[in-house]
Amino acid sequence: MTNLILLAGAALLLGAAQSAPLLPVHNGGRMVLEPTGATRFGWPGVYVEARFRGSAVRVRFDAPTDHIRLSIDGAEHRLFRGAGAVDVTITGLSPDVHVVRLEKLTETQSGSSRFIGFEVPGGIDLAPRARKRQIEFIGDSFTVGYGNTAPGPECTQQQVHDLTDTSQAFGPLVAKAIGADYRIHAFSGFGMVRNYNGGSPDQSLPAIYPRAIPGEPATAGPDRGWQPDTIVINLGINDFSTPLRPGEAWRDAGMLRTAYRDRYVAFVTELAARDPQARFVLMGSDLFFSDVEAVAKRLPPNFSKRVRTVRFTGLALTGCHGHPSLADHRRLAALVGGTITAD
Length: 343
Prior knowledge:
Blueprint: E1 2-3, E2 25-28, E3 32-33, E4 39-41, E5 47-54, E6 57-63, E7 67-72, E8 75-81, E9 84-90, E10 96-104, E11 113-119, E12 124-126, E13 133-139, H1 141-144, H2 157-162, H3 170-178, E14 180-186, H4 205-208, E15 230-234, H5 237-240, H6 253-274, E16 279-285, H7 289-298, E17 307-312, H8 326-342
Helix pairs in contact: 3-8, 6-7
């Protein structure tokens, strides 16, 4: 959606003595507007874009732990790695129309980053351009792009963080290929009803899905500007990849699969009620694709033209801790993108 808030007074966050009017921006992802006019964000894959005519642009944000890519006219200009408060002016651009973009690459399971604004000293601000299509991706570490740039599966937790690039995960690749805006609601280790190895038993991805910031309990407000035409769901790996432990809510694997299918049907039904225009792509690996097919069959008859299932298999999984590599993500993107464009 296009955010035309001018973010007045946000310069105080970085101690600027005087600030020019800020560019109107186009946000990709959930963002929380603060009283200062800045916006906070925590979900993966969030991006902010603006257009201007001029030879310089000032960029301000605060990212204590996240890696943030700054691009101009589609080319990476600089990569900030956990830089904290940033106030930088890029000069020497041609005096033409430019697009400036900030993009969150890393996963934040607690905390958040803050976008303060773009300025064009001596330039002209232009209205940002939203894309005609919108795609939402809901999932786990596969959707995040967990450790996807790693040279091999052996990684420390710090390396997982540093080697994750959500912009090269299958979701953004699909969206960029077809010229769509996208949102990613994904959290590594979480499943539909059960998390990896039974962790955080009071949580699940559907449980935290309504949150404005994934690590905070506050729910997101209404957003009329977000009306996805496609919602892609990839949840199940964490539900089934580890054996049940004593004390978990399900007596055996059969009970777990029943709970998974019941919650999945309910989740899709909830999303469809919120976004009646949306079609759904339900993804599944060999581990749980039969369950995904069962879910699709249990949905009401009027869903038959709105739901597609996609099975993925044969991935190299050479990213951190056996996750998809960049090549795997390109393969997944071709599979999912082909399904979306075939409708």
